[in-house]
Please model this.
Amino acid sequence: MTLQKLLDPLTDAEARVQTNVRFVEFFGLPGIGKTTVANLLGNKLQQCNLAVDEDRSAYEKRTFVGRQLYRFGIISSRLADREFRRLSVRIARFVAEGGQATAIDLVREIWHLCYLSAYILDKRSSSASILVLDQGLLQGFWSVFLKSRRRRTSENWLDILSSIGVDDVVFLHLRGDIVTAQGRLLKRGDQSSRMQKASPDGDLEVWVAADRACREMAADLKTGTRAANRAGVLAAVDVGPLASPDEVAERALRGLLLACRDRLPPVGG
Model:
């Protein structure tokens, strides 16, 4: 299916995405193809004459120290905002009460979620382009849940997500099985992946826990958004073992456009 045929049935699809979506965020198991598909989707959106924010690509080219300095700058710029300070305290309480394997994990996860929150808020106020994220808020919460000892906390992760704001976000869940994700990750040899650090030998128990966390979060998000009338959208994109990255990107684009169409009120309503 060509891109034009994909867009034809969706009335004014480009305008709908441009008007209603600021963030497209991928979610799924490590190795499932989030970064590759995110890059391809960004290219496809640009082919639709949509303005796509290139900041994520620039961020990835920085050194480790450069990335941390960039994160510090983003967080520090939001500290004057009382609501952000309150949000940061809630994040810290949520991560601490959930429990992490080590003190380093605790600090890292708090820092990472606070950065992601500040980054989304900053981009929301300073840019009108669409930002495609391969590692966003959902992946940040997944990283917390991967090593959490307790699921129940005084802070609900959906409430924190809602406080950050999801009405201009579409979450694309790359949904594939453990074998597919594990095989791709091992073939890639990415030693920076959280799963490679947690399970360098491919421990099935760790992968099952990771997959369960993804599925539970997806179920929570679907139920929570309906119950609280939140406008965030989770669209599932199936990733089979034989699917090429471009095929998955086409499915992701379809899921994005359909999600944008379905959440809008009827014309003239």
